[in-house]
Amino acid sequence: MFSSLLRLGLLLLLPLGSRVPQSAEKPQDEAGRYTLSVPVDEVNLTFHASDFHGMPMEDLTEKDLRLLDDGKRQDRILSFQAFRNLPIRAGILFDTSRSMEGLWRNQDIAAMYATRLLRKETDQAFVMRFDSATKVKQSWTNDAALLAESLWTIAFDRESRLGGTVLFDSLYKACRDQWTSDRDAITGNFILLFTDGLDNASHARLEDVIDICQQARTAIYVFSDEAKSFHAEGQKTLNELVKKSGGRIFFDATGPEVWNDLRIMESDQRSQYRIVYKPSSLKADGSFHRIKLDSPTRGGVITTRSGYYAAR
């Protein structure tokens, strides 16, 4: 249905601007595991809020919020800011492994987002594909023709016919290597991910990916070809990724549903809030602190990263 968008539409697009923030360490230890350590005594927390119909709540105040750090109420709020119409920095990631045959529908969804929602004057995107290895097909650009070309060729560019999927490594590298400059820029950062959630070849662990995406302030949004299931292993992984990075997962969406889901994703990223607070009783022990943010007075759904690591 949307293939014509992919052929013609990307001539309308894309973004100008710079890439975005990251404050994470890079690579692997000798055992092959990815590690992350971020010293903090102030926590910078970006979040978005929506009502129970998925519409953005744009009038929250600091007094509407309840912030818990490891279960303890936090009152040392250093700043509270609300942002509207933020510029977007989007990474479009395609799983091209053997378990993901038939990418045309996913390409159509990516093309719809690129042609109808990304703003040429302010936004920017890149395209990456992965199977047993990771490859950036198109680096950050505002050139619609380059994005269109990368989307067209992505299904024919596979590393190996022998199988293998490095989902975690690819997400880790995307957040580590792509969101690196303009650390203080206020932008809506997210990954639009097309995968079944299966990984059988990565060095990075799920928690490593969550950690570094949190530090890059990059949410993960997934369009799944499957119906929602409580038993599918891949879906369990995807739910963990989106929940702890501040994103969403859309299951088996077709036709008008795709457009509605894309609008929800964009609304999340264009309208955001930011809190900076100083945690009480913070110990320099490298432990993970869990964050809970809600609004008892207003209700709705507040989505943010799940926590941070204390300094050592």
Helices and strands in order:
Layout lengths: L2 H6 L34 E8 L15 E4 L2 E2 L3 E7 L4 E8 L8 H13 L7 E7 L3 E8 L2 H10 L13 H11 L10 E7 L11 H10 L2 E7 L8 H13 L2 E4 L4 H15 L1 E6 L10 E7 L6 E4 L2 E3 L3
Parallel strand pairs: 5-6, 5-8, 8-9, 9-10
Antiparallel strand pairs: 1-11, 1-13, 2-3, 2-12, 4-11, 6-7, 12-14
Helix pairs in contact: 2-3, 4-5, 5-6
Question: Could you explain how this protein is built, in words?
Answer:
By secondary structure, the chain is of the alpha/beta class. It has seven helices and 14 strands. The chain has helices at residues 3-8, 104-116, 144-153, 167-177, 206-215, 233-245, 256-270, and strands spanning 43-50, 66-69, 72-73, 77-83, 88-95, 124-130, 134-141, 188-194, 218-224, 248-251, 272-277, 288-294, 301-304, 307-309. The strands form three sheets. The chain has a six-stranded mixed sheet with strand order 7-6-5-8-9-10, sandwiched between helices. Strands 4-11-1-13 form a four-stranded antiparallel sheet. Strand 2 (66-69) and strand 3 (72-73) form a beta hairpin. Helix 2 (104-116) packs antiparallel against helix 3, helix 4 runs parallel beside helix 5 and helix 5 runs parallel beside helix 6. The longest helix is centred in the last third of the chain and has 15 residues, at 256-270. Residues 1-33 and 35-39 have low confidence and may be disordered.
